[in-house]
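CGNR zinc finger domain-containing protein: structure, please.
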Amino acid sequence: MQLNPYGEYAVMLAASLANDWPADRDGVVERSYEFGMTAVYAPASDSDLDRTRLVVDGWLDVVDAPTAEHRAALLNRRMAEATAYPRLTDHDGGWHLHYRDDDQRLPQVLGAVIAVGTALHLTTRGMDRLGRCAAGDAPGDPCRNVVVDITRNGRQRYCSVRCANRDGVRRHRARAAALPHGAA
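Here you go.
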């Protein structure tokens, strides 16, 4: 039984867009389909790409919120701005929920889905299961990618194995440099 169809996938979509912004509206639509969206979007508008970028940038405020309370307040504001009622639909052959009105454009659809999905992800997995790559503190080559922690143990801190390895090597070298010369 799938009770949370918008949680993990919507957050992963938002992180994917934040970490690797598409060149055009078609790229955003294609990415949304890759992450499981089945929406049929209203006709394209010249402002869709820029307005969708504003949605993702606003979502990054949620990612960077310093406390669970602040994160919740930002998400509540984003969900209130969506101003759509959840509705049942069978547009693709199976009944499911949409968290949007049928005639909304791409930025409004993704704004609603990402806000609700993020809220569902954080309330089911934990309010601390969203953040920036832990390699972001590395001098010289910090990583600012978003990390959506979907692990069982809740300890994912890096956006990739590459960042985890690079940060591990950096920490090892810093410890080795701090040892007195000749100590092992």
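Notes: Helices lie at 7-19, 25-34, 48-63, 68-82, 106-125, 161-178.
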